[in-house]
Amino acid sequence: MFQSLCRKTQVLCTRRVREQWVRSFMVELQPVEQIVLVREKQDHNGPTMQFPGIWLRDNCLCDACFHRNSLSRLPHGWNNFDTKVKVQDLSVNVEQETLHINWSDAHRSEYPLEWLRERDFSSANRQRYLSHSYRPESQHWSGDQFQNILQKFEYRDLVSRDDTLAEWLRTLAIYGVALIKNSPLDIGVVKTLCNRVGFIRRTTYGEEFSVKSQPGAKNYSYLAEPLPLHTDMPYFEYKPSLTILHTLEQSVSQGGWNLLADAFYVADLLREKHPEEFEVLSRTRVDWADIGMDNGVSFHNIWRAPVINLDADGNYARINHSVPQRDSHFSIPVQRVQPWYEANALFVRLAQEQAVSFKTTPGDVLTFNNLRMVHGRTGYDDTELNVRHIVGGFVDWDIAYSRLRVLQKQQQQQQQQRLRQQQQLQGQKQVESKLLSQVQ
Ligand SMILES: [Zn+2]
């Protein structure tokens, strides 16, 4: 009796698994365009996945075409790549959920449908990939919106919890700013945060830097004077991307307030309301420079780039602005100089209008996107009893986005595992109750 029940369970389990997991697929080739279409049959209104033939051939996953350990395409196929390669026939292995293609060059390829789903060329899927896996889409904010978009994170959560770390990086990617609260008043906080992301970015001023009033300072930010809105280090081609400013001591005087504005929003205003000035600021290269010495090492940094830098899609890639670090060399034709000054003066005025001010307290760590935010501070009285001491450091976006993607993948895998366990448990319960009803 016991044996036969077991056998019966097994048969039922297998059938159930088939019903639940095996789906059927429609595959079709558009022969002229050589586009492969794949759709799940039971989902008639569902999206049709699209794959160009040439892309499928280029991305064959067999051992001759793809190196599994490095997850990279093997290069030799490109020594003589046949751009006219054609799909000869195609089929889906329903049990294994794989697409099979025989090619006109006598090659044969096999693609898991799960892998294809991730890479579907449909516009919705490309959008999903860009905003989820590539980079979260930025949301630009006006000064009035600052209180709504500012997110605060507890330092101890950030150093101990991966979900908080991911949320902080996502917030920086979307809004360009986030505030960390209750960090220890310890000189190592900036380095700890940088190491949590990956590693600190070294510059001509070393790794961490201390901002406090220094008599005879060689850099303008080391004076107690007001520091107008600017981005840090526009004179670098590889400009440090995330600024981390830890408040160790705060001036009790009236001043020392932080100023911050979303220069992407300012660029939006220009683009919309002042298109000519926008054009000038996004097309005129400005000479940014920093000449001096730090720790006994002389440097002479120059980078020529516009104030508003656009990528190939016309989106903002980077803002450069710093009055002290704009060189007196201005290598553009003379008739383009006056219009640039008009446009830049407008940019500065709009940035000032959109700037918010707030005063950090000891233990606060202000973090922001240095490719996007302009920041500054009001002046303050610096005396022996009234000190302001900020420790700063940088992390590069490459490192931060990489960490975010790794964390997101971990979260996704954990979620899938939980889902699978739930489904297994549900399946078992259903089989058991079916069996029980049959036995009864
Ligand atoms: Zn292959």
UniProtKB/TrEMBL annotation:
Pathway: Amine and polyamine biosynthesis; carnitine biosynthesis. One of its GO terms (biological process) is carnitine biosynthetic process. It comes from Drosophila lebanonensis. InterPro entries: AlphaKG_dependent_hydroxylases (IPR050411), GBBH-like_N (IPR010376), GBBH-like_N_sf (IPR038492), TauD-like_sf (IPR042098), TauD/TfdA-like (IPR003819). CDD domains: CAS_like. Gene3D superfamilies: 3.30.2020.30, Clavaminate synthase-like. Residues 44-117 form the Gamma-butyrobetaine hydroxylase-like N-terminal domain. SUPFAM superfamilies: Clavaminate synthase-like. The keyword Magnesium does not apply. GO terms for molecular function: 2-oxoglutarate-dependent dioxygenase activity; metal ion binding. Residues 152-392 form the TauD/TfdA-like domain. Belongs to the gamma-BBH/TMLD family. Keywords: Carnitine biosynthesis, Dioxygenase, Iron, Metal-binding, Oxidoreductase. GO terms for cellular component: mitochondrion. It comes from the Eukaryota. Its cofactor is Fe(2+); L-ascorbate. This is Gamma-butyrobetaine dioxygenase.
